[in-house]
Amino acid sequence: MKKELVGLSKADLQQEMLALGEKPFRAKQLWHWIYNKGKTNFADMTTLAKPFREELDTLYTVSHPKIITEQNSVDGTRKWLMEFADGKQVECVYIPEADRGAVCISTQVGCAQGCKFCHTGTQRMMRNLTAGEIVGQFMSARDSYGEWPTPTDETRYLSNIVVMGMGEPLCNFENLKTALLIAMDGDGLAISKRRITVSTSGVANHIPELADLGVKLAVSLHAPNNEIRDKIMPVNRKFPLEVLIEACKEYQRRCERRQFITMEYVLLKDINDQPKHAEELMKLVDGLEVKFNLIPFHSWEGAPFEASSNNAIHRFSKILESNWFAAPVRRSRGEDIMAACGQLKSAKGTDGTVSRTQRPTNESTEK
Ligand code: SF4
Which of 68, 246, 254, 361 is most buried per CB count within 10 Å? Predict the structure, then answer.
């Protein structure tokens, strides 16, 4: 079986070339073709000698996840169903803003975290994605927009990566790290680390390491105390709030420069949406620099919660904002193509069945 080159670190690619008896600069050339030019066919890599291209073709593949379907929203959101070599699928969304746009990518097929407000959490965890499959989602998105070779930072359309799709990124940390280092590399995809955000449900042990990578952090907080969080997010039993908050403090200590943490907060009727919860929340984050992102709950059939009323949501936001916290209520994107948070469905579920998911999808999604 041929070996996949997408997802190998720069050092590993160099090792591969050395093992073939090639000079290290061959790895550099290949890297450029794969990640700057976006080529998947060795025959197109014309700076390499023909016999070498033919040899590569017998040993390796360069592949991007296959785009099965593509849908476009009137607001510019684009959603893809992507498939990996073994037939497993994830959805991927591009969310445009005025001068940039973020591609939301996944790190696992299914999720083991079991957050009670998330339909993905009711789907069986199938497997971790490889580093190549993680970064490959962004590359397929670029294929879709024809954004090759890598444009300058100012002119590109797909400028940001948000790791907020299916799965818990920090439960697949090594592959995530390799994928992000590939995405950041200036000779290839060249996504600035400042334009990458990783969202976690609260797997605290790896949070400080995100500061070492230089990427932004979003935390799916969703509760102001352990009692509520234990009920809606099982991860809290392993990493209770005091451990999570300490990890966030360590993340901010390690960051090179001032870095706000986005605290995601899905509002659930009578569970966590009362004024006393807002007060408690502000005390909880004391000592951290945070901004809140308030998320209206999108219900699904059989969901154990109801959405908070608009009044309750705005009352909650007002309490935080009157205490100098940024606390916008997230607006939905791509509703007409079911790409808004909680509206995504997978054509083929993780177990191969047709199902609906409440899957985090965009920059402000719930994890
Ligand atoms: S919110 Fe995120 S971490 Fe929680 S179950 Fe859903 S996909 Fe998993």
Answer: 361
The finding on whether 77 has its CB within 6 A of some atom of ligand 1 is no
Whole-model pTM: value is 0.92
Residue 358 has pLDDT above 70, yes or no: no
Q: Is 248 a catalytic residue?
A: no
Q: Which atom of ligand 1 is nearest to the CA of 166?
A: 7
Pick the CATH number of 66-356 from 3.20.20.70, 3.40.50.300, 3.40.50.920, 3.30.1130.10: 3.20.20.70
User: Is residue 168 in contact with ligand 1, taking CB distance under 6 Å?
Assistant: yes
Measured distance CA(336)–CA(100) in Å, rounded: 21
Of the candidates 91, 168, 264, 366, the residue annotated as catalytic is 91
Q: Which tens digits make up the pLDDT trace of 101-146?
A: 999 999 999 999 999 988 777 778 999 999 999 999 999 999 999 9
- DSSP code for 3: E
For residues 318 and 189, what is the distance between their CA atoms, to the nearest angstrom? 40
Q: Give the per-residue pLDDT at 311.
A: 97
Question: Is 341 known to be catalytic?
Answer: yes
